[in-house]
Design goal:
This protein is α/β, with parallel strands linked by helices. It has nine helices and twelve strands. The protein has two domains: 162 residues, P-loop containing nucleotide triphosphate hydrolases (Rossmann fold, 3-Layer(aba) Sandwich); 79 residues, no CATH class.
């Protein structure tokens, strides 16, 4: 397992501050959801955690070491990121896409090893995409395409997997398909998964830990059952809601009924 954390992190685009003085520890071994209002800095934070956006101040630490100072290949062997709405060249098949996940492990001029081949097939099988291995991505449904991209990330063989809004633009059945896959990867493969989600009930149901971001700062962090309160919904999302017990999981389930104030 690998640990990911930030220390006094400051991120900005130009002169606009997005994340300010943020320190957070992301527990290994769990499924962690980043939630918060639009514009709160969730996706920006995820990019910085994956070393795609350098900080203005502070640091992102991977296993206690500044991620900006680590070799790119070393980082790619420990964490994989799936950005929002990824795109691929037309005609690329599922299997061809998944092979890209092996690039951080391949040596120059060494070609494809037996281990690479086995891991590519394993990743395709784990995501239920074996029957679609030779199918071009554009011929798949939205849920199938997302599973193919997750298979590519799996083939990278990292203990950490970062997913930026993996359910966006998917219908409900495909959203659940992706989230159930996330749960299996955590449970069966011991993957630590950090994902940005908009749906609060999905974040509660499928996460072992929630990090709530508001105005570039961590508002709350912890077990969903402990931190999901009426006060949090009011302060962070401007919501009036009933919080009931989910009869299936025993976790909180939110039923919004009004707006308490503008966020």
């Amino acid at each position: 397992m690998s640990d990911l954390s930030t220390k006094n992190l400051h991120l900005s685009y130009g002169n606009k501050a997005i994340i300010e003085d943020l320190s957070v520890d992301l527990r290994s071994g769990g499924v962690i959801s980043l939630i918060g209002p639009n514009g709160s800095g969730k996706s920006t934070l995820l990019k910085s955690l994956a070393r795609l956006l350098p900080p203005q101040k502070g640091s992102v630490l991977l296993d206690g070491k500044d991620i900006q100072k680590l070799p790119t290949k070393q980082v790619a062997q420990k964490l994989a990121i799936l950005p929002q709405s990824p795109t691929a060249p037309e005609g690329l098949t599922v299997e061809e896409l998944v092979w890209f996940g092996r690039h951080p492990h391949q040596k120059l001029l060494s070609g494809r090893s037996k281990e690479d081949q086995e891991l590519v097939q394993w990743a395709i099988a784990q995501t239920g995409m074996t029957i679609f291995a030779k199918t071009p991505l554009e011929n798949l449904s939205g849920g199938q395409r997302q599973r193919a991209w997750i298979a590519m990330s799996l083939a990278q063989g990292t203990p950490l997997l970062l997913l930026d809004e993996p359910t966006t633009y998917l219908d409900l059945s495909h959203q659940l398909e992706v989230l159930q896959l996330v749960g299996r990867l955590n449970r069966d493969q011991s993957k630590t998964i950090l994902m940005v989600l908009h749906d609060l009930n999905q974040a509660i149901r499928y996460s072992t830990q929630i990090v709530v971001v508001k105005d570039g700062k961590v508002h709350s962090q912890g077990d969903p059952a402990q931190i999901m309160t009426h006060q949090l919904l009011h302060e962070v999302f401007g919501l009036k809601a009933h919080i009931i017990e989910d009869p299936d999981t025993g976790k909180p389930h939110i039923i919004p009924y009004g707006i308490s104030r503008m966020v």
